[in-house]
Amino acid sequence: MRWEDVNKNLSTRVIDSVKNQINNPDKKRSQSTHIITSSNDLGVIRNGGRNGSLYGPRAILSVLSKMAKTSIDRNIFHLETVDKEITNFDHFQAEQINSIKKITDNTNGFFIHLASGHDGIYPFIKAISANNKVVVINLDAHLDTRQDKVAHSGTPFRQLANELGKKLQLIQVGIHDFANAPSNYQDVNMEVVTMSQLKEKTSNMTDNKKFINDLLGPLKREPNLRVVISIDIDAIDGSEMKAVSAVNHDGIKTEFIRELLRTYKKDFEDCYVGLYEYNPLFDDLGMSGARSICSLIHPFFYSN
Protein backbone atom coordinates (compact mmCIF):
# COMPACT_ATOMS: atom_id res chain seq x y z
CA MET A 1 0.00 0.00 0.00
CA ARG A 2 1.26 3.45 -0.89
CA TRP A 3 1.91 6.02 1.87
CA GLU A 4 -0.74 8.38 0.48
CA ASP A 5 -3.28 5.56 0.68
CA VAL A 6 -2.37 4.99 4.32
CA ASN A 7 -2.90 8.70 5.04
CA LYS A 8 -6.25 8.60 3.27
CA ASN A 9 -7.38 5.65 5.39
CA LEU A 10 -6.24 7.36 8.58
CA SER A 11 -8.12 10.54 7.61
CA THR A 12 -11.31 8.53 7.09
CA ARG A 13 -10.80 6.90 10.47
CA VAL A 14 -10.46 10.30 12.15
CA ILE A 15 -13.66 11.55 10.50
CA ASP A 16 -15.50 8.53 11.88
CA SER A 17 -13.97 8.84 15.36
CA VAL A 18 -15.27 10.27 18.62
CA LYS A 19 -12.48 12.86 18.42
CA ASN A 20 -13.97 14.37 15.26
CA GLN A 21 -17.40 14.53 16.86
CA ILE A 22 -15.96 16.26 19.94
CA ASN A 23 -14.16 18.82 17.80
CA ASN A 24 -17.07 19.33 15.40
CA PRO A 25 -20.35 18.98 17.31
CA ASP A 26 -23.53 19.01 15.25
CA LYS A 27 -25.53 22.00 16.45
CA LYS A 28 -28.75 20.54 15.05
CA ARG A 29 -28.91 17.85 17.71
CA SER A 30 -31.31 18.51 20.57
CA GLN A 31 -29.52 16.63 23.35
CA SER A 32 -25.92 16.67 24.39
CA THR A 33 -23.28 14.49 25.95
CA HIS A 34 -20.90 16.61 27.98
CA ILE A 35 -17.43 15.44 29.00
CA ILE A 36 -16.17 17.36 32.02
CA THR A 37 -12.57 16.83 33.06
CA SER A 38 -10.41 17.85 35.97
CA SER A 39 -6.81 16.75 36.37
CA ASN A 40 -5.20 17.02 39.78
CA ASP A 41 -4.10 14.36 42.24
CA LEU A 42 -3.54 16.45 45.35
CA GLY A 43 -6.58 14.82 46.95
CA VAL A 44 -5.08 11.37 46.33
CA ILE A 45 -1.67 12.41 47.65
CA ARG A 46 -3.25 13.92 50.77
CA ASN A 47 -4.95 10.56 51.32
CA GLY A 48 -1.65 8.66 51.05
CA GLY A 49 -2.34 7.28 47.57
CA ARG A 50 0.14 6.67 44.78
CA ASN A 51 0.94 9.53 42.40
CA GLY A 52 -0.27 9.30 38.83
CA SER A 53 -4.05 9.77 38.76
CA LEU A 54 -3.24 13.31 37.63
CA TYR A 55 -2.86 11.87 34.11
CA GLY A 56 -6.00 9.72 34.26
CA PRO A 57 -8.50 11.97 32.43
CA ARG A 58 -5.99 12.70 29.67
CA ALA A 59 -5.22 8.99 29.16
CA ILE A 60 -8.92 8.08 29.06
CA LEU A 61 -9.68 10.81 26.53
CA SER A 62 -6.75 9.69 24.37
CA VAL A 63 -8.23 6.20 24.07
CA LEU A 64 -11.81 7.40 23.81
CA SER A 65 -11.09 9.83 20.98
CA LYS A 66 -9.91 6.97 18.75
CA MET A 67 -13.09 4.95 19.12
CA ALA A 68 -15.63 4.98 16.30
CA LYS A 69 -18.58 7.29 16.71
CA THR A 70 -21.11 4.57 15.77
CA SER A 71 -24.43 6.21 14.85
CA ILE A 72 -23.93 9.14 17.17
CA ASP A 73 -26.93 11.44 17.20
CA ARG A 74 -25.93 13.75 20.01
CA ASN A 75 -23.69 16.76 20.34
CA ILE A 76 -20.50 15.92 22.18
CA PHE A 77 -18.68 18.65 24.04
CA HIS A 78 -15.29 18.24 25.63
CA LEU A 79 -15.35 20.77 28.43
CA GLU A 80 -12.35 21.36 30.68
CA THR A 81 -13.12 22.63 34.16
CA VAL A 82 -10.21 23.82 36.33
CA ASP A 83 -7.00 22.31 35.00
CA LYS A 84 -4.25 24.31 36.64
CA GLU A 85 -1.83 24.31 39.54
CA ILE A 86 -3.52 24.24 42.94
CA THR A 87 -2.44 26.79 45.52
CA ASN A 88 -5.42 26.35 47.85
CA PHE A 89 -7.40 23.09 47.78
CA ASP A 90 -10.65 24.57 49.18
CA HIS A 91 -10.51 27.43 46.68
CA PHE A 92 -9.82 24.94 43.89
CA GLN A 93 -12.94 22.91 44.79
CA ALA A 94 -15.04 26.10 44.90
CA GLU A 95 -13.83 27.03 41.42
CA GLN A 96 -14.75 23.58 40.17
CA ILE A 97 -18.27 23.86 41.59
CA ASN A 98 -18.82 27.12 39.74
CA SER A 99 -17.38 25.77 36.49
CA ILE A 100 -19.45 22.57 36.54
CA LYS A 101 -22.59 24.44 37.56
CA LYS A 102 -22.31 26.61 34.45
CA ILE A 103 -22.34 23.43 32.37
CA THR A 104 -25.12 21.53 34.14
CA ASP A 105 -27.53 24.39 34.88
CA ASN A 106 -30.46 24.62 32.46
CA THR A 107 -28.98 21.90 30.27
CA ASN A 108 -30.30 18.42 29.55
CA GLY A 109 -28.39 15.37 28.44
CA PHE A 110 -25.62 13.10 29.63
CA PHE A 111 -22.78 14.39 31.81
CA ILE A 112 -19.58 12.36 32.10
CA HIS A 113 -17.18 13.63 34.76
CA LEU A 114 -13.59 12.42 34.50
CA ALA A 115 -11.44 13.49 37.43
CA SER A 116 -8.25 12.24 39.02
CA GLY A 117 -9.11 11.54 42.66
CA HIS A 118 -12.47 10.73 44.20
CA ASP A 119 -12.43 14.19 45.75
CA GLY A 120 -13.69 15.21 42.30
CA ILE A 121 -17.17 13.88 43.15
CA TYR A 122 -17.58 16.65 45.74
CA PRO A 123 -17.73 19.61 43.31
CA PHE A 124 -19.71 17.51 40.81
CA ILE A 125 -22.47 16.79 43.35
CA LYS A 126 -22.40 20.28 44.82
CA ALA A 127 -22.96 21.77 41.37
CA ILE A 128 -25.83 19.42 40.56
CA SER A 129 -27.50 19.75 43.96
CA ALA A 130 -27.91 23.53 43.83
CA ASN A 131 -31.60 23.22 42.93
CA ASN A 132 -32.20 19.49 43.25
CA LYS A 133 -32.26 16.56 45.62
CA VAL A 134 -29.50 14.12 44.67
CA VAL A 135 -29.21 10.36 44.99
CA VAL A 136 -25.63 9.13 44.66
CA ILE A 137 -24.97 5.47 43.90
CA ASN A 138 -21.30 5.06 44.72
CA LEU A 139 -19.46 1.97 43.52
CA ASP A 140 -16.43 1.71 45.76
CA ALA A 141 -14.39 -0.44 48.11
CA HIS A 142 -14.13 2.55 50.48
CA LEU A 143 -16.90 4.67 51.99
CA ASP A 144 -14.85 7.86 51.50
CA THR A 145 -16.33 9.26 54.70
CA ARG A 146 -13.04 9.69 56.58
CA GLN A 147 -13.12 12.05 59.56
CA ASP A 148 -9.97 13.98 58.72
CA LYS A 149 -9.34 17.67 59.26
CA VAL A 150 -8.44 18.35 55.61
CA ALA A 151 -10.40 17.42 52.50
CA HIS A 152 -8.98 14.73 50.24
CA SER A 153 -10.03 11.73 48.13
CA GLY A 154 -11.19 9.87 51.25
CA THR A 155 -13.55 12.56 52.62
CA PRO A 156 -16.00 13.71 49.88
CA PHE A 157 -19.12 11.89 51.07
CA ARG A 158 -18.75 13.09 54.66
CA GLN A 159 -18.36 16.62 53.32
CA LEU A 160 -21.46 16.22 51.16
CA ALA A 161 -23.52 14.62 53.95
CA ASN A 162 -22.60 17.43 56.34
CA GLU A 163 -23.39 20.19 53.86
CA LEU A 164 -26.42 18.82 51.98
CA GLY A 165 -28.26 17.01 54.75
CA LYS A 166 -31.61 15.65 53.56
CA LYS A 167 -30.94 16.80 50.00
CA LEU A 168 -28.50 13.89 49.69
CA GLN A 169 -29.35 10.19 49.57
CA LEU A 170 -26.21 8.06 49.54
CA ILE A 171 -26.10 4.40 48.48
CA GLN A 172 -22.69 2.74 48.83
CA VAL A 173 -22.19 -0.47 46.81
CA GLY A 174 -19.28 -2.92 46.92
CA ILE A 175 -17.90 -1.78 50.27
CA HIS A 176 -15.26 -3.83 52.11
CA ASP A 177 -15.13 -3.76 55.90
CA PHE A 178 -11.36 -4.35 55.82
CA ALA A 179 -10.97 -1.12 53.83
CA ASN A 180 -12.88 1.10 56.26
CA ALA A 181 -12.23 2.12 59.85
CA PRO A 182 -15.26 1.92 62.21
CA SER A 183 -15.36 5.73 62.37
CA ASN A 184 -16.15 5.85 58.64
CA TYR A 185 -19.60 4.41 59.35
CA GLN A 186 -20.47 6.94 62.05
CA ASP A 187 -22.66 10.03 61.70
CA VAL A 188 -23.38 9.65 57.97
CA ASN A 189 -26.85 8.68 56.77
CA MET A 190 -26.23 6.12 54.03
CA GLU A 191 -27.27 2.72 52.78
CA VAL A 192 -24.36 0.28 52.56
CA VAL A 193 -24.27 -2.83 50.37
CA THR A 194 -21.07 -4.68 51.17
CA MET A 195 -19.24 -6.74 48.60
CA SER A 196 -20.36 -9.97 50.27
CA GLN A 197 -23.99 -8.77 50.27
CA LEU A 198 -23.72 -7.77 46.61
CA LYS A 199 -22.46 -11.24 45.72
CA GLU A 200 -25.33 -12.80 47.62
CA LYS A 201 -27.93 -10.59 45.95
CA THR A 202 -26.53 -11.28 42.45
CA SER A 203 -25.66 -14.99 42.74
CA ASN A 204 -21.96 -14.17 42.85
CA MET A 205 -22.46 -11.45 40.22
CA THR A 206 -23.87 -13.82 37.59
CA ASP A 207 -27.46 -12.48 37.82
CA ASN A 208 -27.30 -8.70 38.14
CA LYS A 209 -30.56 -7.51 36.58
CA LYS A 210 -32.91 -7.88 39.55
CA PHE A 211 -30.55 -6.07 41.92
CA ILE A 212 -30.03 -3.24 39.41
CA ASN A 213 -33.76 -2.91 38.68
CA ASP A 214 -34.55 -2.87 42.40
CA LEU A 215 -31.87 -0.20 42.87
CA LEU A 216 -32.85 2.13 40.04
CA GLY A 217 -36.56 1.39 39.64
CA PRO A 218 -37.92 3.43 42.59
CA LEU A 219 -35.75 6.40 41.65
CA LYS A 220 -37.38 6.77 38.22
CA ARG A 221 -40.65 7.76 39.81
CA GLU A 222 -39.36 10.63 41.93
CA PRO A 223 -39.76 14.12 40.40
CA ASN A 224 -37.03 16.76 40.66
CA LEU A 225 -34.44 14.14 41.50
CA ARG A 226 -30.92 13.87 40.11
CA VAL A 227 -29.43 10.38 40.15
CA VAL A 228 -25.64 10.24 40.01
CA ILE A 229 -23.53 7.12 39.55
CA SER A 230 -20.06 7.58 41.01
CA ILE A 231 -17.50 4.94 40.05
CA ASP A 232 -14.28 4.72 41.97
CA ILE A 233 -12.21 2.61 39.61
CA ASP A 234 -10.65 0.76 42.53
CA ALA A 235 -14.07 -0.80 43.11
CA ILE A 236 -13.35 -3.05 40.11
CA ASP A 237 -11.80 -6.44 40.74
CA GLY A 238 -8.01 -6.43 40.51
CA SER A 239 -8.04 -9.25 37.97
CA GLU A 240 -9.70 -6.77 35.58
CA MET A 241 -8.29 -3.45 36.79
CA LYS A 242 -4.77 -2.93 38.10
CA ALA A 243 -4.40 0.73 37.09
CA VAL A 244 -5.44 2.24 40.42
CA SER A 245 -3.74 3.40 43.59
CA ALA A 246 -5.35 0.66 45.72
CA VAL A 247 -5.79 -2.59 43.77
CA ASN A 248 -8.91 -4.50 44.84
CA HIS A 249 -8.38 -8.24 45.26
CA ASP A 250 -12.14 -8.91 45.67
CA GLY A 251 -13.95 -6.26 43.69
CA ILE A 252 -16.93 -5.67 41.41
CA LYS A 253 -16.89 -7.19 37.94
CA THR A 254 -16.88 -4.76 35.02
CA GLU A 255 -19.91 -6.47 33.51
CA PHE A 256 -21.96 -5.50 36.57
CA ILE A 257 -21.05 -1.84 36.02
CA ARG A 258 -21.78 -2.16 32.32
CA GLU A 259 -25.28 -3.53 33.06
CA LEU A 260 -25.89 -0.81 35.66
CA LEU A 261 -24.97 1.97 33.23
CA ARG A 262 -26.93 0.34 30.41
CA THR A 263 -30.10 0.33 32.54
CA TYR A 264 -29.41 3.83 33.84
CA LYS A 265 -28.99 5.23 30.33
CA LYS A 266 -32.17 3.51 29.13
CA ASP A 267 -34.38 4.58 32.03
CA PHE A 268 -33.25 8.15 32.76
CA GLU A 269 -33.44 11.11 30.40
CA ASP A 270 -30.59 12.94 32.15
CA CYS A 271 -27.57 10.94 33.32
CA TYR A 272 -24.70 11.97 35.58
CA VAL A 273 -21.71 9.62 35.72
CA GLY A 274 -18.40 10.26 37.47
CA LEU A 275 -15.28 8.10 37.06
CA TYR A 276 -12.37 8.55 39.44
CA GLU A 277 -9.04 7.17 40.65
CA TYR A 278 -7.79 5.67 37.37
CA ASN A 279 -3.98 5.75 37.46
CA PRO A 280 -2.40 5.23 34.02
CA LEU A 281 1.10 4.88 35.50
CA PHE A 282 0.06 1.40 36.61
CA ASP A 283 -1.74 0.41 33.42
CA ASP A 284 -0.16 -1.99 30.93
CA LEU A 285 1.35 -1.05 27.57
CA GLY A 286 -1.92 -1.83 25.81
CA MET A 287 -3.80 0.60 28.09
CA SER A 288 -6.28 -2.15 28.90
CA GLY A 289 -7.53 -0.29 31.99
CA ALA A 290 -8.27 2.87 30.02
CA ARG A 291 -9.91 0.82 27.27
CA SER A 292 -12.17 -0.89 29.80
CA ILE A 293 -13.21 2.49 31.23
CA CYS A 294 -13.88 3.85 27.74
CA SER A 295 -16.09 0.87 26.97
CA LEU A 296 -18.31 2.03 29.85
CA ILE A 297 -18.46 5.62 28.59
CA HIS A 298 -18.80 5.08 24.85
CA PRO A 299 -22.50 4.01 24.85
CA PHE A 300 -23.46 7.46 26.15
CA PHE A 301 -22.50 8.88 22.76
CA TYR A 302 -25.40 7.35 20.90
CA SER A 303 -29.05 6.60 21.59
CA ASN A 304 -29.35 2.88 20.93
* Secondary-structure-derived class: alpha/beta
- The proportion of residues forming helix, as a percent range, comes to 25-40%
CATH architecture: 3-Layer(aba) Sandwich
Question: Percent of residues in beta strands?
Answer: 15-25%
Distance between the termini: 36 Å
Number of helices: 11
Q: How many separate domains make up the residues? A: 1
What is the CATH domain class?
Alpha Beta
Which stretches of 5+ consecutive residues score pLDDT under 50?
none
Number of strands: 8
Placed side by side, the strands forming the largest sheet appear as 2-1-3-8-7-4-5-6
Mean pLDDT figure: 87
Tell me the Rg in angstroms: 19 Å
**Major sheet characteristics:** 8 strands, parallel
Query: In CATH, what is the homologous superfamily?
Result: Ureohydrolase domain
The general outline is: globular
- CATH topology assignment: Arginase, Chain A
What is the H/E string? HHEHHEHEHEHEEHHEHEH
Question: What would your notes on this structure say?
Answer:
The protein is of the alpha/beta class and 304 residues long. The protein has one domain: 3-Layer(aba) Sandwich (Arginase, Chain A). Helices cover 36% and strands 17% of the residues. It has 11 helices and 8 strands. An 8-stranded parallel β-sheet has the order 2-1-3-8-7-4-5-6, with helices on both faces. α9 (209-220) packs parallel to α10 (254-267). The mean pLDDT is 87.
